[in-house]
Each structure stands twice: as structure tokens, then as C-alpha cells.
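Table S2 (continued). Query chain:
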Amino acid sequence: MIVIRGRGATYGEAWYDEEPPGKPGVDIILYLQRHAPIATSRHTPVLSLATDLSLEDGEIMDKFSKDCRYEIRRAETRDGLETEFLREPEGRLDEFREFYDTFAGQKSVVPSDHRWLVAACESDQLALSSASRNGEVLVWHAYVISANTARLQYSGSCFRNRPSDYRALVGRANRWLHWRDMQRLKELGMLHYDWGGLFADESALERAGINRFKREFGGRQECRYDCTVAATIRGRIWLALRDAWQRGKSVGNLREFVSRQQLPS
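Corresponding output:
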């Protein structure tokens, strides 16, 4: 379980169908991406897209769109890219954060959450990967690992105000890195690659574009549930205060309160 010490309460994150320890030592438990809601919890349905990593590599890639396969092959054979996959990434967190937060500033989205990244490292549930060319990092990905599932938490690429050929290179590098990550995660025993959510409302062009990018990889759409359960009296009080603070506001998901929402590139 990932433990985050917030301003007023301590949160524990239990991903997928993971069960927290008998005495979790937290005030509030976030059961994230569960297959079914916890009946007594505050719960929210969330959409996501999942790629089945139990298939052979060829079977997985056959589900990609034709253009996606072409971009990956070109990146593999002609772009001179290198990849790095970090299963113990603690020493590279600052490098990742600097890159991602620059991306977030360009896109006007919430920057990375340092407390969460450190907590995920401490629980051995964080993996980072990057794609680079000639020593220049083009793309970073961050994953939360739970049992046999890896979920994309952050994806950042900095190419705004750059020439069109550079932007095209970064787009290919991003697709290629997703593919290489899938292969590496398979080697680690992962069976599911979760794309980190889908927007139910595609009326905004950027959200529709993000969904379209993810669907290029042919995953299966799923509905899961994020559930919140107070584990202590302090947790119940804090949730009541949070609800009062949020009343009348538009809340994207449960984790917005702890400032960790992100948009993949």
C-alpha cells in the first residue's frame, strides 16, 4: 500500500483489488481501480483502457492501428532512439520531475506530486522509463505497479514551439516507448497495461485527442471504481471537511483532493 501523509490526514492507496494490511496505520484508504465498488464506500466509476500483456508480442502489436505500428517500426529502425527502464528510480526522481513539470507548465496541467512519487518509491510500486536521442530525453513515463498490473500515471514530452519534424520525432518516440515499456513490464510478470484512464466527455478537442492516441494501441475499454473509506475517526472528520470544501465544485476524481491528477501526452 502506498502511504501519503497529507496536510490533515494520512492516506493509503490500495490499487486494483489489493487489500490493505489489517492495521494500515492510515486515516483514509483509497481503493483505486477496483473491479467492483465497496458497498459502504464513497465510490466513483472511472473509465480506462487496458492492454492484455499475456499475449505474444506479435498478437499485442497486431491490435495496434496500422499507423501506430508504422510509427513504432520507424522509431525502432531509423530514429536512433535509446530507452531506459528504471524499476528502482529513487535516484532519478528529481530529473523526472524537472522534465515533467516543464511539460505540465506548457500544457497548463497539474505538475507531478513529489510526495506521491516518493511514497510510491518507498513502497516499491513506482517504475520510470524514458526515450532519448543523442543524450537528449524526449519522453518520460511513470507507472504505478500493483500485483500483475502496471498503470500509466504520468506521461510527458516537451516539444511545444519546436519544428514540425521534431514534434513528429517526439510523437514516434512516445509510441515506441509505450511499446518497449509493455515488453519490459511483461518480463517483470505484468499481465495488464492500464493506460491511466479515458475521458468520458470528449467534447474538448484535447481530451478527444488523448483518448484517440490511447485507442491506437487497441486496448479494451473497462469501467472500474475508485472508492474512499475512512479508517479512523480523524479520517471521517477530514472527509466531511473535504466534502464541505468541494461542495459546488467540479471534481474530476477522488485524487484531485491530494493534487495528483495528470494528463498523458
